[in-house]
Amino acid sequence: MFQYDSDKHYPKETESRVVIRFQDCDPLRHLNNAKYFDYFFNAREDQVPKLYGLEIIDLIRVYKAAWVVYNHNISYVKPAMVGEWVRIMSRILWYNHNTIIVEYYMTDDSKTQLKTVLWSTMRYVTLAEGKSTDHSGAVQDFLKATSLDLDFVTLDILQRVKQLKAELEKGKLAEVGKR
């Protein structure tokens, strides 16, 4: 279970290095559009326990609630190709009392070319009734410790793509996760 420690620095971003598998590609050797979701979700699921000592399933068991996706916004910038090594980063951009927005993005292995950006908006709901409920306890602590808490109201995904591309060109993305 996540134990918040005010003296500890919590990285705001997860990162994985993965290879694009042949079985996940279309005849043009591009990663199939639907497969980006699998790559993104699997990468975050692998990294969260390593970075934060937290298995999301533990939060679900204790609080009897889980996040349910109700919106995806994805921008395909450059194709990921079969056999290519890529970097997948994710971070919680924003949260409130019952909703989170997680940003996933993929770059080439050297983090110089943006390939895809995905925003997933999720509502926190009870397992028993499937009704919206507030974040509390360790869930709230985790969000507070790991969220970028961006001013999301003024941001759209096309602006974000431009921003990420500019940061990649300047080599600044490597610094984001260290904040």
Structure, described:
By secondary structure, this protein is of the alpha+beta class. The protein has a single domain, classed as Thiol Ester Dehydrase, Chain A (Roll), CATH 3.10.129.10. Strand 3 and strand 4 form a beta hairpin. The longest helix has 18 residues. It is globular, with a radius of gyration of 16 Å. The mean pLDDT is 93. This is Acyl-CoA thioester hydrolase.
Helix/strand layout:
Blueprint: E1 14-19, H1 35-52, H2 56-63, E2 65-76, E3 85-95, E4 99-108, E5 114-126, H3 137-146, H4 157-170, H5 173-176
Antiparallel strand pairs: 1-3, 2-5, 3-4, 4-5
Keywords: Hydrolase
Pfam families: 4HBT_2 (PF13279)
Protein name: Acyl-CoA thioester hydrolase
- Overall average pLDDT: 93
The percent range for helix content is 25-40%
Main beta sheet, described? Answer: 5 strands, antiparallel
How does CATH name the architecture? Answer: Roll
Name of the top-level CATH class: Alpha Beta
User: What is the tally of helical segments?
Assistant: 5
Structural class, from secondary structure content? alpha+beta
Return the string of H and E elements: EHHEEEEHHH
Number of strands: 5
Brief sketch in words of this structure:
With 179 residues, the protein is an alpha+beta fold.
Summary tags:
single chain; 179 residues; Thiol Ester Dehydrase, Chain A; five-stranded antiparallel sheet; 5 helices; globular; hydrolase activity
